[in-house]
Amino acid sequence: MRAAVLSAPGTITIADVPAPEPAADEVRIRLEGCGVCASNLEPWAGLDWMTYPGDAGGLGHEGWGVIDAVGAEIDDLTPGDRVAALSYRSFADADVAKASMVAKLPPQLDGQPFPGEPLGCAFNIFRRSDIQPGQTVAIIGIGFLGAVLTRLATDAGARVIAISRRQESLDLARHYGAAETIPMHDHYAIIDQVKALTDGAMCERVIEAVGKQWPLDLAGELIAFGGRLVIAGYHQDGPRQVSMQNWNWKGIDVVNAHERDAEVQLRGVQEAIDAVASGRLDPAPLYTHRYTLDQLGEALDATRDKPEGFVKALVMLS
């Protein structure tokens, strides 16, 4: 099979490797596609503690496709089942996953791409956010996660203030239900606008979905006394500083909303499947750019550079 290998920073090669064989508790998935995650960008750029080349298919963890082989212990999944998987070498024609880490896709989703891991991530962040009807929720950063969270928070009865750099991102937030949008250009102007919109009370919930220092600083300013600051951004490029004086004075809860418990991750995927299949969430407008496996480097560059109209890239494998 074909598999993409990160052979050096900024360099992808396509290797011809043996297809993986499932262990007794695993299934093999003939992949239809795999989403490109912003967490891929640090290894793509090159980090001091990384080694190269990486594993075949190794950056891909947002795959979906059709099971074509099952391990000896599997009795609830069969070849032909279409699934989303929590697996980790999915920039390839096939990947294996533990049977406990795949979720069946219902017929309502036939023909639709379904990167289950990032959708599940959004649902798990939403659950950890504990958003209640009538609350004001600021979401900083309207990319894929921010857009999905905007819809979920709005459906929960919250008033969403979306804050993002690009006008097209703010337009996307409106599409997904944001009541207010603020361009992310001037730190103090944003604070003043949120004060005006909340009569000085600020926001019961703030979700930071960028993964950089300034948005984290801004989140601490926008959170209300006794509120919950939810860190959904992927802060993996170095240490951060926080205004502990401000956080302490306000008495806020701070939630790092990235899940590492596989069962919890899968719960989010299943919740996402149910929401999309029922029509409660339509993620199709978020899948803006599609690439072949040979174009994975271009997909990573687009994820980094965000050309006009970009939200999320998918690498299509079949």
Q: Mean of the pLDDT scores?
A: 97
Indicate the CATH topology of the largest domain: Quinone Oxidoreductase, Chain A, domain 1
The fraction of residues assigned to DSSP E strands is 25-35%
What is the alpha-carbon Rg in Å? 20 Å
Q: What would you give as the CATH superfamily of the largest domain?
A: Medium-chain alcohol dehydrogenases, catalytic domain
Label the overall shape.
Answer: globular
The residue fraction in helices comes out at 25-40%
Through-space gap between termini: 13 Å
Q: How many β-strands, per DSSP?
A: 15
Q: Output the number of helix runs.
A: 9
| Tally of individual domains | 2
**What's the CATH class of the largest domain, please?**
Alpha Beta
Q: Give the second-level CATH assignment, the architecture of the largest domain.
A: Alpha-Beta Complex
Helix/sheet category: alpha/beta
Spans of at least 5 consecutive residues whose pLDDT stays below 50 are none
Biggest pleated sheet? 7 strands, mixed
Order of helices and strands: EEEHEEEEHEHEHEHEHEHEHEHE
Domain Enoyl reductase (ER): 7-315
Protein name: Threonine dehydrogenase
Keywords: Metal-binding, Oxidoreductase, Zinc
Pfam families: ADH_N, ADH_zinc_N
